[in-house]
Amino acid sequence: MEPVQVLSVSKSIDGNQVVYHATDPKAGYTLISAEAEDYNPASVEWVSGQIVDYNLIAPESYEQKPGSVKLHAGLPMSYLQITTVEAGTEWYKANSKYPAEVCEMMAKYEWGDLKYTTKKEFRNQKKKISRRSKKQQGLTTKRGPVVVPFD
Question: Dihedrals φ, ψ of 35, to 5°?
Fold first, then answer.
């Protein structure tokens, strides 16, 4: 028989009820505070797990480079699930105060190929982006058949 482990603990907003979820559904249980008189668990508002973004912290045994700063807050789970540059750009726009252009560059650096570029290539890419935006603001010409009606 496998040992039963606690998977998660959910606490109510008012702090009077705690639900323990285990690997075996029969082993899960609910605790109600002894100070709560005439407590009705049906009236409790629960926070959805989709709204919560947990910060994952590296364990103490994780080896760090000498001189590195240890982050006390950890990394959000939503950040760790990002795999593409587009998703990273949207995450930075939603969770930071940086402008959209900076968010895109940060996402390219983190999940794209920008981390392998040199300073010169980075400057050239920045110039190309600024030139493209200037060209798009002007007039455009359409090529194709021209029909001139003679009425």
Answer: -80, -15
